[in-house]
Inverse folding.
């Protein structure tokens, strides 16, 4: 109890503003939930792949161009990263962190402009960035990708 | 080739027909005498009156299990299949629904109200209910304890049938080492012991994949078609698709199977190249892990194609055959709350059932079609006829038959889908970050201190307040505790960084269009948040035709199916 009182006395008005901002962000996120911000122009992950997991004509034609892709943010490999994996359907656990977990073949590696604000696993997002085809192994994580979004941003779908 | 009994009628007409049966003598006088529902039901009645129990010895036994396809999921598949054929869905009749006999099956495991597939598969394929997670052993075994397996082993239906001189095959769209197929040939204290790398130290019981190869060597399993290649090859070995194996004992079980004379297939082309007239086992491993969902399938055979190949390969055996078929991924799609794939795999299962019906005769083949367990799937109302079963609920048209095209709205003003899950990844509750608990508390206390009135201060227990300022602080603290408990805020500390973060599970339903809801990748809404949607303990159905199929009726324990198969084939 006494510790709490001490904390309360040292809090400033800045803390109050921060608290209100955080609450506001959460509320805004809720309001946006389920609303398709990008409209039907958004690309789905399945638009990038053929059934045999080769790249679609669309993916090949869009290589090097900016594109917005809908999906879910898989739980990140590590905290405070600019990298995450976009999946077609929600992944509750980090697939690389547990050998037993199933990892979908059709995914999109996303390299964001800034440190990623991790989203709940079951919140749909739209990631926008430059589509980049070709094999690449991430030097930090060892993550191997065949296709990526680079210089990316994202928002809730 | 002889056709099965065909019961081409809806459940509604069956029920109606049975009800009016005893007074059918007066039917010509009834005003509904020419009503199609009534006449269809009359035909149904006459057909059932002519049915006689089939007490032939079953030369062949086929059990087909759609994993996670209980009565609810099956209902959705019936409508989906019908709607893809262009009808409303309700009136559709799935192939298995033409079989004349039916029972409801109690699926619990001995230690689990909600069953898992290992326990249920052991019940069906090895005759005893056992604990969740265990394969081919009885309930005396402790999960994960290899030392108790030997004493707890039970005999599988594959073993009995092969001892009776029959060919046997196991087919699945999941990994061949997964729970349901494994119960046909393996004994394991844990379903996860799929290869040696998963075995606990000192475990003397072989892993599940190696037990399959041993079963092929002994002749207990003649054909095995499915996924799970990674459990058959070493960790430093890449398969045909460039994916590494899991085995750490250096064994390449595919090579070992080939050395036994097995034909091996890994894709559609090598599958088509298998000589089905050739003696010796057949091993098909079409994916590193599970085979693809039917919706995503490419370069691998369908379940129906695997069924056709297996029956073709085995039907030359004059002693007959035993075939176990699993549609393994209805379950997986349900776990993912992705109804569309559950139903497209359900339709692929229906096509496999149809293939068995076409290729066998009910004179000599006992066919059982069932599920191992149900899921936490649920159905909303009140939807008009023809409402897309994967999509939003449309209203009922009082003046006609087809739905009125009006999206039904919940009290929150939003439309809702016909099908939802009680729990799963589609939960409307999201784990939202909030300001840390400490910050929120500090804010509340600070506000309370600023705004405190004399009356509020007076309410503070004087035993804990030694001064007026202390009483004000105590008042703030009390408010903070009350409010925080209402907010259900949880604070976690990151083990690596030491940073704390706080969150709440909150949410509401947003707008949803029919186009979004019927998208193949749509995740059905759920209430309780869970990464993986769960099984449920409710009953599944068992449909049956052929010799002694009439023994499958009423409400039965799941392991009873084993006794019926054994009796029909051996008389024991």
């Amino acid at each position: 109890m006494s510790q709490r009182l001490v904390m309360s006395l040292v809090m400033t008005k800045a803390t109050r503003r921060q608290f209100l901002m955080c609450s506001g962000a959460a509320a805004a996120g809720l309001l946006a939930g389920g609303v398709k911000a990008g409209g039907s122009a958004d690309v789905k992950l399945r638009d990038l792949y053929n059934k045999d997991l080769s790249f679609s004509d669309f993916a090949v034609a869009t290589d090097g161009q900016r594109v917005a892709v809908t999906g879910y943010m898989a739980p990140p490999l590590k905290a405070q990263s600019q990298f995450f994996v976009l999946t077609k359907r929600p992944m509750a656990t980090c697939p690389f962190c547990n050998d037993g977990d199933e990892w979908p073949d059709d995914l999109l590696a996303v390299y964001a402009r800034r440190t990623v604000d991790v989203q709940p696993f079951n919140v749909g997002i739209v990631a926008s960035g430059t589509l980049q085809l070709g094999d690449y192994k991430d030097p930090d994580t060892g993550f191997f990708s065949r296709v990526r979004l680079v210089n990316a941003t994202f928002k809730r779908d | 080739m002889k056709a099965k009994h065909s019961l081409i009628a809806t459940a509604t007409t069956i029920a109606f027909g049975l009800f009016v049966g005893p007074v059918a003598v007066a039917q010509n006088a009834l005003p509904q005498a020419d009503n199609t529902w009534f006449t269809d039901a009359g035909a149904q009645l006459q057909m059932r009156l002519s049915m006689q129990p089939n007490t032939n010895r079953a030369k062949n036994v086929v059990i087909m299990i759609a994993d996670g396809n209980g009565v609810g999921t099956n209902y959705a598949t019936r409508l989906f299949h019908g709607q893809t054929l262009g009808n409303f869905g309700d009136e559709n009749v799935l192939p298995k629904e033409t079989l004349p006999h039916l029972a409801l099956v109690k699926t619990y495991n001995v230690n689990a109200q909600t069953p898992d597939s290992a326990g249920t598969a052991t019940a069906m394929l090895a005759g005893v209910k056992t604990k969740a997670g265990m394969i081919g052993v009885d309930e005396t075994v402790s999960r994960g304890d290899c030392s108790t397996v030997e004493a707890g082993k039970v005999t599988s239906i594959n073993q009995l049938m092969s001892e009776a001189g029959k060919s046997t095959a196991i087919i699945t769209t999941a990994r061949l080492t997964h729970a349901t197929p494994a119960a046909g040939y393996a004994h394991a204290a844990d379903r996860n012991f799929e290869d040696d790398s998963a075995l606990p130290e000192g475990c003397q019981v072989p892993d599940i994949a190696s037990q399959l190869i041993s079963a092929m060597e002994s002749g207990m399993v003649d054909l095995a078609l499915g996924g799970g290649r990674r459990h058959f090859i070493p960790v430093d070995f890449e398969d045909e698709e460039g994916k590494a194996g899991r085995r750490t004992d250096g064994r390449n079980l595919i090579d070992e199977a080939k050395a036994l004379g097995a034909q091996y297939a890994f894709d559609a082309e090598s599958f088509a190249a298998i000589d089905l007239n050739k003696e010796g086992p057949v091993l098909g491993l079409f994916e590193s892990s599970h085979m693809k969902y039917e919706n995503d399938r490419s370069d691998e055979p369908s379940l129906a194609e695997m069924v056709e190949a297996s029956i073709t390969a085995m039907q030359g055996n004059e002693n007959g055959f035993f075939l176990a078929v699993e549609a393994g991924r209805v379950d997986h799609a349900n776990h993912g709350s992705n109804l569309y794939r559950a139903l497209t795999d359900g339709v692929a299962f229906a096509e496999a059932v149809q293939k068995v019906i076409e290729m066998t005769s009910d004179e000599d083949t006992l066919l059982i079609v069932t599920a191992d367990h149900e899921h936490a799937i649920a159905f909303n109302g009140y939807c008009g006829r023809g409402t897309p079963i994967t999509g939003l609920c449309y209203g009922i048209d009082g003046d006609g038959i087809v739905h009125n095209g009006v999206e039904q709205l919940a009290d929150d003003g939003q439309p809702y889908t016909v099908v939802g899950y009680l729990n799963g990844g589609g939960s409307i509750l999201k784990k939202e970050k909030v300001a840390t608990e400490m910050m929120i508390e500090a804010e509340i206390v600070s506000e309370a201190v600023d705004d405190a009135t004399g009356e509020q201060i007076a309410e503070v227990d004087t035993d804990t307040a030694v001064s007026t300022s202390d009483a004000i602080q105590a008042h703030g603290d009390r408010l903070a505790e009350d409010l925080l408990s209402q907010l259900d805020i949880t604070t976690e500390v990151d083990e690596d960084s030491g940073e704390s973060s706080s969150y709440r599970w909150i949410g509401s339903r947003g707008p949803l269009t029919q186009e979004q809801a019927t998208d193949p990748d749509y995740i059905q809404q759920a209430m309780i948040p869970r990464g993986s949607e769960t099984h449920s303990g409710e009953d599944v159905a068992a449909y049956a035709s052929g010799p002694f199929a009439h023994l499958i009726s009423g409400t039965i324990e799941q392991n009873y199916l084993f006794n019926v198969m054994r009796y029909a084939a051996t008389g024991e």
Notes: The beta strands of chain A are 43-44, 66-73, 83-87, 107-112, 124-137, 144-156. The helical segments of chain A are 2-10, 13-32, 57-62. The radius of gyration of chain A is 19 Å. The longest strand of chain A covers residues 124-137.
